[in-house]
Amino acid sequence: MANLSALNLRFGLSGQIVFKEIPGSLIVMEVTNAHGSATIALQGAHVMSWRPKSEAEPVVWLSRAARFTPGKSIRGGVPVCWPWFGPHATDSKLPAHGFARTVPWEATATRVLDNGATEIALTLVETDQMGTMWPHQTKLSIAITVGARLKIALTTDNLGNEDVVIGEALHTYFQIGDIADIRISGLEAGDYLDKVGGGSVRRRQDGRVVFSAETDRIYLNTEAECVITDPRLKRRIHVTKSGSRSTVVWNPWTEKADKMGDFGLDGWREMVCIESANAAENAVTIKTGSRHTMAVEYWTEKYDG
Ligand code: TA6
Fold first, then answer.
1. Residue 126 in contact with residue 134, Cβ under 8 Å?
2. 138 contacts 49 by C-beta, under 8 angstroms
3. Residues with CB under 6 A from ligand 1
4. Does the N-terminal or the C-terminal CB of the chain have fewer CB atoms within 10 Å?
5. Contacts with 272 (C-beta within 8 Å, 6 or more apart), sequence order
6. Which atom of ligand 1 lies closest to the CA of 171?
7. pLDDT(185) > 70
8. pLDDT tens-digit profile of 245-288?
9. For the chain, what is the mean pLDDT?
10. Cα distance between residue 302 and residue 305, in whole Å
11. Residue 2: what pLDDT?
């Protein structure tokens, strides 16, 4: 791992980006500009938090009980799930949601955009160990733009001489006032796989998504914008995407959150995941020599409904 002074010398932007080590020895970038702020861990290129200047509360949620241990996933933020989503199709010993979120990435470029936002590019650091889990020649890179909006673009290059199939997600945890009060629009009448209880029952969405119990759904064949309406925090969060045909909606509710052990006291009440993904039947085939990008853009507006 490059040392902090070398990282700050090469990629720090005076006043906008500072590399720091946090307890647990993870290296993070603290990003601050006139429009917003974010914290990004080099492990997993993991956006841990994001707050536009217009918001008193962060928009991207981070558990108060999150663990920052090398090689372990962080509860909250925007975990990068890649090159598969959920459990591995054939080998249950391999990590759920792939390995990208728990391995080192390296910064490749940082810059200030004309509108004052900060753009950071990172790429996953390939290792021999990965080759045993993923015997394909691919390159994974990400571009993160921090400002009044948060933009993330995840790109897979297929450098091999055969087509490759990936599953992926930007597994974003959004901060909300209370899960029982919010509603999500944009998925009306969509087909989804209901994963609660370990099943995979195909159902159809009736109206907006509301929550009264553990909810774990993969909405299929949708490129729709989703909007979280949050009467308690008096805001709407807009979730738009491209290059993604699945949208996953998840809240563990109390029992599953307690079992997971890193949600903190009632942390599950103040978060909801809307994950832009390519999962299940929406897995993506990337032709040899070509590339695929999945991107998201988030922003907020005041809501006094
Ligand atoms: O995206 C929903 C989900 O697949 C849930 O089934 C739950 O496992 C969640 O991801 C979190 O998974 P993680 O491996 O981060 O604990």
1. no
2. no
3. 73, 86, 96-97, 171, 195, 216, 248, 250, 260, 273, 275
4. C
5. 173, 174, 176, 179, 182, 184, 211, 228, 249, 250, 251
6. 1
7. yes
8. 999 999 999 999 999 999 999 999 999 999 999 999 999 999 99
9. 96
10. 9
11. 57
pLDDT of the residue at 17:
97
Supply the pLDDT for residue 54: 96
Q: What is the sign of the dihedral through the CA atoms of 39, 166, 276 and 296?
A: positive
* Ligand 1 centroid to residue 158 C-alpha, Å: 26
Pairing between β-strand 271-278 and β-strand 168-170 as defined by DSSP bridges:
antiparallel
Beta carbons of 28 and 39 less than 8 angstroms apart: yes
The answer, as to whether pTM is greater than 0.85, is yes
Peptide bond into 83 cis (omega under 30): yes
Query: Which residues are tagged catalytic?
Result: 171, 275
Which structure tokens are listed for 23? Answer: 């307890």
Task: Give me 274's structure tokens.
Answer: 């809307």
> Ligand 1 centroid vs 251 CA: distance in angstroms?
9
pLDDT above 90 (res 151): yes
The alpha-carbon radius of gyration of the chain (Å, integer) is 18
- Which residue in this structure is represented by tokens 């297929």? 158
CB 30 within 8 A of CB 47: no
The Cα 214–Cα 223 span in angstroms is 24
Q: What would the two tokens of residue 184 be?
A: 């999500």
